[in-house]
Design brief:
By secondary structure, this protein is mainly α. The protein contains 9 helices and no strands. The two termini are about 30 Å apart.
């Protein structure tokens, strides 16, 4: 569990700098330059991600059961994950109605994914991983919306074409992951 926690601290910590240490972040960018800062940021994020994956795999070898979710919650997670994939893709498709409406679909995708997985998995390592991501996403989403209001950020209106592309691409990406990649990468078959 310590490796998982260290990975979460590194990964979520570096992704929280704009929320909790934006002044320091801006000073470092000014001191180092944008590209060196992005490189350093990326190295810390990648190291954190690798530690999360490794730590989660290690923690799964010594499972501690906290609760046993009912089967219907496990199946409901499939819907949460589908929504999360659509939101994740919507963050990347220009001029879609989802991004125009929620403004930060990627963070909302993480919230949805983490919440669904907390409902569906009751091991300690699951609660640590998904609980940390859920807490981080809740804080980041609120901070991002406050920053948008403070700075007067205006998001372009969505188009039907952009929205349809985001939804279709999200569903296709979800299907590939749910029916093939999740079992291959995680070792758990999510769709029964």
């Amino acid at each position: 569990m310590p490796v998982l926690i260290l990975g979460l601290v590194l990964f979520l910590g570096v992704h929280s700098l704009r929320v909790f240490a934006d002044g320091w972040r801006k000073r470092q960018i000014a001191r180092l330059g944008l590209m060196p800062w992005k490189g350093l940021y990326s190295l810390v994020a990648i190291a954190g991600f690798v530690l999360i994956c490794w730590g989660f795999a290690l923690a799964r070898q010594h499972p501690v059961l906290l609760y046993t979710p009912p089967l219907w919650l496990v199946r409901l997670n499939t819907l949460f994950t589908l929504v999360a994939f659509v939101l994740f893709v919507a963050a990347r498709v220009p001029r879609n109605g989802i991004k125009a409406r929620v403004h930060h679909p990627q963070v909302l995708a993480v919230k949805t994914w983490a919440f669904g997985h907390l409902l569906a998995a009751g091991m300690l390592h699951d609660v640590v991983l998904f609980g940390a991501f859920l807490l981080w996403a809740v804080v980041l989403f609120a901070a991002s919306r406050r920053r948008d209001r403070r700075e007067g950020t205006v998001y372009p209106p969505g188009t039907a074409k952009g929205t349809i592309i985001a939804i279709v691409a999200g569903v296709v990406a979800w299907a590939v992951f749910a029916f093939w990649l999740h079992t291959l990468l995680i070792g758990v078959k999510p769709v029964m």
